Amino acid sequence: MRLQTAEFPLSNVATAAPYAGPHRWQISAGARLIRRALRHRTYTRWVRAYCDPFVVTGLGRIASLRGPAIFIANHQSHMDTLVLAEAMPPRIRDNLYFGAAADRWFVRGRKKLELNPLYQSIVLGNFPVVRGGGAKSLDYARWLLQQGCNVCLFPEGTRATDDELGPFKQGPALLALATDVPVVPVYLSGLRGIRPKGALHARRGAAGVHVLEPVRFVADTPVVEATAQLRAILSRRHAVERTYMRAMVRDALHDAA
Fold first, then answer.
1. I want to staple 159 with a disulfide (CB 3.0 to 4.6 A). Which of 31, 39, 89, 197 is the partner?
2. Phi first, then psi: what are they for 147, rounded to 5°?
3. Model's pTM, two decimal places?
4. What is the pLDDT of residues 181-196, one digit of tens each?
């Protein structure tokens, strides 16, 4: 069956006319082959260049994961997607697609290669999500899960500008309840220091990817409750990380005194 793109038009959302995609062909064997061939250029070299040390924990929690899953992570930086993908084992990484803001990454007519919607779809494995588009904006993510693909969403909806974990959108919980697939929370650390929001360039620093225990919701779980549960899981890890960083700063100041 030939893959087409017209089944999920973003033009059904009033603000979405300037946007391209999603592109269903991005899950084809040919597109996956291109992504694997270009992985070093688009992912690996940047992680190696700027993330030192690069620490990954918790992969054992998804060792037995079979079938599609929804990955969620806190959003700190444009580096988040690169680092999270690089941390995953190949069987997940090669079948993982990231929701990306349509108004930034899928605008028609952009001349810069990295901002071209086709580049986003085929090389990075991204798909557009219209901010404020409601449940309809997740139709393509649901389709990906139905095809056996993994999906990653950032429930805060935007990158953090301070040390706090932002409020969560309900999209990931809605999607999990609608498809009955597990949610894998992932906590990212250090990336706001490497490339904070608004920065044009990255600087070298420590980065961490911490995979937490997968969650599967009971079918009748209220969306508000499911969303709160997901945020609580990442909040607990966030509190641990903040305590650790504050201790490091305190020790450094003590040593310098």
1. 197
2. -85, 0
3. 0.86
4. 999 999 999 998 888 7
Polymer length in residues for the chain: 257
The CATH superfamily label for domain 19-192+200-256 reads Glycerol-3-phosphate (1)-acyltransferase (3.40.1130.10)
* H-only helix segments in 40-138: 45-50, 80-87, 90-93, 102-105, 117-122
Q: Where are the domains of the chain?
A: 19-192+200-256
Q: Are 27 and 97 in contact (CB under 8 A)?
A: yes
| C-alpha closest to that of 185 among 215, 227, 225 | 215
pLDDT value at position 250? Answer: 46
The token pair that represents 115 in the structure block: 């901002």
Instruction: For residue 14, give the DSSP letter.
Output: G
Q: Is 175 exposed, middle or buried (0-12, 13-18, 19+ CB in 10 A)?
A: buried
